[in-house]
Amino acid sequence: QVQFVESGGGLVQAGGSLRLSCAVLGVTFSIPAIGWYRQAPGKQRELVAVLRNGGSTNYGDSVKGRFTISRDNAKNTAYLQMDALKPEDTAIYYCNVPRHDSSPSYGFWGQGTQVTVSS
User: How far apart are CA 50 and CA 19, in angstroms?
Assistant: First the structure.
């Protein structure tokens, strides 16, 4: 029933910006948190940004100061503003509902959105 729909990725030059969107479908209740994950080929999927219902945020060390997570509660949509992009940010980006240990609450993922940063 629940679906994650990511969008907004693309190809950008290093130093550029991109804004990703994540629509969470099929829920009628308030979720405790929303998170953005990313996965590059041959690497583990990692949690890079979290926004909790109370407004607190957490960011991975590699993106801190460059990425900003936000949400529109009425639309069940989360956003990831990505600035000062680096080639190392190249990955497929996904959203899910993170637990406190960073693992996803749901055992499935959306299609993800590809972010490619050229040097």
Answer: 15
